[in-house]
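Quick one: co-fold with zinc ion.
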Amino acid sequence: MNSMPSADAPEAFPPWLRSPLAGLAALVRTRQPPPGLLVVGPEGVGKGLLVRTFLQRVACKAATDDVFPCGICNGCRSFLSDSHPEILEIAPEEPGKEILIDRIRSVIDFLSLSHSGPARLVFIEPAESMNVNAANALLKTLEEPPEGAMLLLAAARPARLAATIRSRCQRLRIPPPDSALVRQWLAPMVRQGLGVDEALAASLNRPMAARALLDDPVAIERWRQDREALGMLLESASPFPVATVFHACDLGSLLPRLQRLLVSAQTYLVTDQADAFARLFEPGALESFARSRGLQELSSLFQDSLQWHRDLPTALNPQLRCEHMVLRLWRRAS
Ligand SMILES: [Zn+2]
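Sure, here it is.
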């Protein structure tokens, strides 16, 4: 969990999260915190960074600022090393996996202990990854919260959370940030010839992912490989060289970008305009790719690509898998 972004220096903190952060800080300062708070906002908008900065501010013993932690005191250090006695973070064991009831039982035990700070705090993200049993166990705690307990949940898809959990939580909504503001924030991080627009498009318009990409030469290399593979898919006359290039890619990163390309192709057919992702490729190539498949086929390819992504963890010959995918992408094209 420490690999996730944690408290930024105030000047690098995303400007669209400042007012929600001040709201969170006020919640704890001025009155009894609500037992449940649900932070809702699009994927990659910075919900985790927001909550972690708030939690670190609660842990901080030397802050001179109302909302930002100092970053160096013992309280900050124990938070950053994941060993603060009154703050617990819960996430799936691996990205994409469910949060199981055992983890929620540990939350319940944790919250039943006494506290010396303003509250015992638990952060669960993504909250919608709790399975049914885990969510039911958590609901009991939300219905009868121990004194001084505060549960913070973050969800990009709150509709997947049980309505009973949603209704028990105060809601903090993070709207999609203004794109000019996001660009301005990312601009100082540009390096290795990857511009802000390309970083955002490669990250499916998620500001936090764009920042992580700009920060990681390996991820930039992977993006360039993916972009080349997708460009080849658009331009190649035959599926076989494309299968070879797909095979050289990391499918975990390529498939969401392939899905994005299929959406861009559909958008192109409907609006006659290339969106930001489509503009990364040869304009004529996307158009002929889109027209040769048609709207219905593109939508069915999109559904198939979701399935390919879900099937990734199951062992199958990767070479065969890539050939199967690329042949499917060609099937009704010629
Ligand atoms: Zn501190």
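If it helps, The chain has two domains: 10-173, 216-330.
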